[in-house]
Amino acid sequence: MVIKSWAKINWFLQIGPLREDGYHEIKTIMQKISYGDQIEITFSSGRERDLITCHNYPIPTNQDSLFGKCLQEMRQNYPWLNGYSLWINLEKRVPPGSGLGGGSSNIGSILRAINSLFKKINQEGILKVASRLGSDVPFFSLDYPFGLVGGKGEKITPLFYPPREELVIVHPPFSVDTRWAYQAWDERKKEKEVNFKREEQLEIYLKSGGRGDIKSLIHNDFENLVFGRYPVLADLKKELERSGCEPVFMSGSGSSLVGIASDQEKAWGIVEHFRRRGLRARFCFTINSSLPPFLEKEGF
Questions:
Q1: What is the phi/psi pair of residue 116, to 5°?
Q2: What is the pTM of this model?
């Protein structure tokens, strides 16, 4: 099987209190985008050692990695999988620590692929495994391109009017550690007061069934915090705005910046501008329909 592991953006991200299990309550609107990694999965009958490889990016792939833990969880919950060995080979395009959910998407896509082939796991079972592996994994393990995510990430409400936007993604030459971002957030007590106006805007958007203007909802609790540590991100945001993107925002805990372009031609011009500056930049668009996990003919 060759599958596409789609990345995501956060249109809205609000951080709630710290839970007893060590996670934070979150409220976020996520949407998958036409940018991601490629995963090849080979199933063999017979219980041999699982093999996880990635030849173009130095990411952990041993049994203690997130990929290894994913397969361990699946085998513990579904013993019939012990009759098979798996070789998972990744071709990474989404940088780790970019705020686009690359690693979580990899895990969610693998869970969906296993279920797609064997059709022996219900949605509740997929979510049970996914929620143990990371807060973004449940969203990627389900076949929804656009949704409201709550709890620690396991509460997902699909939204049925996903916006279609042309995007410019710019990756600075560094990543942001999500654990640091949450720890830094907890240290800034004053930032944790509820913004009732923002809550009201979110409720209005949700009551519209997703038909409202998503751009008016854009917010990320992490953005000012991360910009304070990495001022270059604030400079890049201003440059994206001057180049013609409107609005521009950070996805997740960073470090990637997302700009909305008026059309595809404009977006490609902005991408080329940043590439000439030696930065990683790409054009993509929001996904507004449920897509199969198998690789589509696209310019990835």
A1: -65, -35
A2: 0.92
Domain 166-285 indexed as CATH 3.40.50.12780: no
Q: Are 145 and 32 in contact (CB under 8 A)?
A: yes
Q: What is the reported pLDDT for 189?
A: 62
| Neighbour count for residue 177 (Cβ, 10 Å) | 14
What's the length of the chain?
A: 300
CATH number of 2-158: 3.30.230.10
pLDDT at 48 over 90: no
One-character DSSP codes across 109-141: HHHHHHHHHH----HHHHHHHHHTT-SSHHHHH
* pLDDT in the model for residue 22: 85
* Residues involved in catalysis: 8, 136
Question: What contacts 94, CB < 8 A, 6 or more positions away?
Answer: 5, 7, 35, 36, 37, 100, 101, 102, 105
Long-range pairs for 185-190 at CB < 8 Å and ≥24 separation?
185/15, 185/24, 185/221, 185/222, 185/225, 186/18, 188/225
> What's the pLDDT score for residue 297?
37
Model confidence over 1-21: pLDDT tens digits? 999 999 999 999 999 998 998
Residue 234 burial (10 A CB sphere; 0-12, 13-18, 19+): middle
Q: Above pLDDT 90, what percent of the chain?
A: 73
- CA dist 131 and 42 (Å) reads 25
Higher pLDDT, 188 or 233: 233
Structural domain boundaries in the chain:
2-158, 166-285
